[in-house]
Amino acid sequence: MPQGAGRRPVGRPPVDAAALRARVFDAALDLCATHGYDGVRVTQIIEASGVSAGTFYRHFGSKDAVLTELVDELTQRMADAIAERRTPRDDPVDDLHDWVSTVVEVGQRTLGDWVPQLRRVVQTALPPALEQGRALHEAVSHELAVPIIARGVAEGRFRSVEPAATVRLITAVLDRAIIDGHPTPTECSEFVVRAVLPEPDPPLPRPTSEER
């Protein structure tokens, strides 16, 4: 047998794809936060992340693809974690409390170290990928939360509101809380539930001296 036959060829160590993607995500977000989305070029992302041009184009292909894949990955992580943790409650008030606090807690934990960059990015023109991620999050929220609001209204536990419009407003509040890192999940759930609870009945008028 020729010398070396059967041996695996010696080459470069395998690339940790997850670590590589994280480096590119970090670099892209930092640059977008500093220069604005439109002010960032692919060559800057390649230089800041330390990957080769060939590696970048093999994994992503464009600046838009970087943010699109980051948003898709984060959104999927959030959806999976929320679905895993969510246990529907019999009482719509408890169910809404649980859904809101779970979304905020999972969102803040999932975004983690990327929150400062994302906060600076969304303060400028919102890139299409982030707008798409927001729309996807709203669609997931609609699917999960509209039935909760509708049940609460039907049972008289919530005020008479339009469920879909109410969930859109709630989702906007939760998106802001996730990006800002505050209020806490519990504070968010208490705020949202108070907003949809029926107004308390006004106190009965006190009888006058003549009526006594």
Distance between the termini: 116 Å
Under CATH, the topology of the domain at 68-196 can be stated as Tetracycline Repressor, domain 2
Report the sheet-strand fraction: under 5%
Class from helix and strand fractions: mainly alpha
Shape: elongated
What Rg is obtained from the alpha carbons, in whole angstroms? 25 Å
Average of pLDDT: 84
Total strand segments: 0
Largest sheet: none
Please provide the ordered H/E string of secondary-structure elements.
HHHHHHHHH
Explain what this protein looks like in three dimensions.
This protein is 67% helix and 0% strand. It is mainly alpha-helical. The protein has a domain at 68-196: Tetracycline Repressor, domain 2. It is elongated, with a radius of gyration of 25 Å. It starts with 16 loop residues before the first helix and ends in a 16-residue tail after the last helix. Mean pLDDT is 84; it is low at 1-13.
Question: How are the SSEs placed, and which strands pair?
Answer:
Elements lengths: L16 H19 L6 H8 L3 H7 L3 H23 L6 H20 L3 H8 L5 H27 L8 H18 L4 H12 L16
List keywords for this structure.
single chain, 67% helix, mainly alpha, elongated
Structure described in brief:
It is built from 9 helices and no strands. It has about 210 residues and is mostly helical.
